[in-house]
Design brief:
Blueprint (H helix, E strand, L loop, with lengths): L1 E5 L10 E12 L2 E14 L4 E11 L6 E9 L9 E4 L3 E5 L18 E4 L12 E5 L4 E3 L5 E3 L13 E10 L9 E8 L14 E4 L5 E5 L13 E8 L7 E3 L5 E4 L8 E10 L4 E11 L8 E2 L23 E2 L5
Parallel strand pairs: 7-13, 14-20
Antiparallel strand pairs: 1-4, 2-3, 4-5, 6-8, 9-12, 10-11, 12-13, 15-18, 16-19, 17-18, 19-20, 21-22
Subcellular location: Membrane
GO molecular function, one term: calcium ion binding
Protein name: Cadherin domain-containing protein
Length: about 325
């Protein structure tokens, strides 16, 4: 007769497994003893992987001949816990107009990394594959968990939002288990991609004279922000040899006269607004010089006029023409 029993190094505790073995024996003409193993039922009580070395058959005889076999039992975990998702920082940053595939960074300049853990798996257990579902088409997560730009020409400048807040879910590829959603916010860093814009300036009339006078206040707008939106003003060109007759404040954009201007003169000024990146725009200011204010007393050409009038002159007839000069004007 044969029996089966665990070997001395059969390291299975009662807490790990419950084993039932059922055998029947029969005799053969050419063999004194034989055994047929009908069943070996193993009930898993713990989530482990065991290498079992068992003496599966032994003669009940003086010789006690036996044979052994190695049995591998891989215990698969029960999907009792959903995966859990975490991110190295909930706030990320990327430059506007970044190419597809550009990594989103945290405030320290490190790539934003999304990781998945699952309490169903131990440190040495093989992990399942996950797919990430995002509530935005503008970003994706690569196989290494890095958050990447997924859209060309992401624009921060108004009227675009400049900030994207979305949720991320991790789902097992081979199952339905999914993590709870996690919120991530990506801010777009400003890039100097907009030139300052100057408005259309209406024609201006400036009184003649040689004192400093305001012509116009030039104000540019720039859709960039911070240092990228700082604008300086300059005069690019003045017609009619008027370069030394006008000036503009480089910071405020106040355009003024500084030289003597004569009534009737006309000037066409090209003013320019330039940002720190060298981007610029220009506008034309048309200036006409009008007669200045009357600050001088009129002067008769003669101090005494001797006029003869005909005895038969009619009422309202011209007696004489008197000329009066005010400055250089008659």
């Amino acid at each position: 007769m044969l029996k089966t029993e665990p070997d001395d190094d059969f390291s299975v505790s009662r807490d790990d497994f419950s084993v039932s073995q059922v055998f029947t024996s029969r005799s053969k003409p050419d063999d004194n003893l034989g055994v047929t193993i009908l069943a070996c039922r193993v009930t898993i009580l713990a989530c482990r992987v065991k290498l079992l070395t068992a003496r599966v058959a032994q003669e009940i005889s003086e010789a006690k001949r036996s044979t052994t076999a190695k049995l591998f039992i891989t215990v698969k975990p029960v999907d009792a816990n959903p995966p859990e998702i975490s991110v190295s920082s909930p706030e990320g940053y990327a430059n506007e107009n970044s190419p597809i595939g550009e990594k989103v960074l945290d405030s320290d300049g490190n790539p934003l990394v999304i990781t998945v853990t699952d309490k169903d798996f131990g440190p040495t257990d093989p992990k399942p594959s996950y797919v990430f579902e995002l509530t935005t088409p503008f970003f994706i997560i690569d196989k290494n968990g890095h958050l990447l730009v997924n859209e060309n020409n992401l624009d921060r400048d108004p009227p675009n939002p400049g900030r994207f807040k979305f949720q991320v879910v991790a789902r097992e590829k081979s199952g339905a288990a999914a993590s709870a959603p996690m919120s991530v916010t990506v801010h777009l860093n400003d890039v100097n991609d907009n030139a300052p814009m100057l408005p259309i300036v209406a024609p201006v009339a400036v009184p003649a004279g040689d004192v400093r006078r305001k012509v116009a206040a030039i104000k540019a707008t720039d859709n960039d922000e911070g240092d990228n939106a700082i604008v300086t003003y300059s005069i690019y060109h003045v017609s009619n040899n008027g370069n030394n007759k006008f000036t503009i404040n480089p910071i405020t954009g106040l355009l003024e006269t500084v030289g003597k201007l004569n009534a009737g003169d006309q000037y066409s000024l090209t003013v320019q607004a330039t940002d720190k990146g060298g981007l610029y725009s220009q506008a034309i200011v048309e200036v006409t010089i009008s007669p200045g204010p009357n600050t001088q007393s009129p002067i008769f050409e003669q101090s005494v006029y001797d006029i003869e009038v005909s005895e038969g002159a009619t009422i309202n007839s011209t007696v004489a023409t008197i000329t009066v000069r005010v400055g250089k004007y008659i």
